[in-house]
Amino acid sequence: MVNYLGTNSTGTAVDFYAIFGVGNSSTSISTIDPSGIALAGIQALDAKGEIQDGQLTELKQQLDTKTEEIQSLKERLARLELMLEQTTTGARHFWNRTGLQSEGLPEL
C-alpha cells in the first residue's frame, strides 16, 4: 500500500478513489490499483478501435458504392451527349436540305 506523500495525507488518494472508485479506502492507493486502471483504459481504447475499424469498413463500402454510381452516371451522361449530338447534327442536315432555317438549334 502506498500512502500519499505531501502536506495533505489524503488529497491524492481521495481524488483517485472519487474518480475511479477502486481500492479499500479513500486514504491510500494500493500498488495494484493504478495497474488495474491502466488495463481498463487499454481495454476501453481497444474496444473503441474495433468500433472505429467497423465504421471505417462501412464508410469504405459506401464510398465504393458512390464511386460506382458516379461512374455509371458519367457513362449515361456520355451516351446522352452523343445522342444529343447525333440528333442535333441530323436536324441541321434536315434543315439544310429543306432550305428552312435552323434557328434555335444549339451550336456544337
Give an account of the 3D structure.
This protein folds into two domains: 1-31, no CATH class; 32-97. It has 108 residues and is mainly alpha-helical. The longest helix has 66 residues, at 33-98. The chain is rod-shaped and about 105 Å long. Helices cover 70% and strands 0% of the residues.
Please sum up the structure shown.
This protein is mostly helical. 70% of the residues lie in helices and 0% in strands.
What's the total helix number? 2
* Global shape: rod-shaped
SSE ordering: HH
Terminal CA distance reads 87 Å
Structural class: mainly alpha
Please give the largest β-sheet.
none
- The share of residues in helices is over 70%
Strand content: under 5%
Radius of gyration: 37 Å
Low-confidence stretches: 4-9
Strand runs, count: 0
Mean pLDDT: 81
Q: Count structural domains.
A: 2
List the SSEs and their pairings.
Blueprint: H1 11-20, H2 33-98
Labels describing this entry:
2 domains; 2 helices; mainly alpha; 108 residues
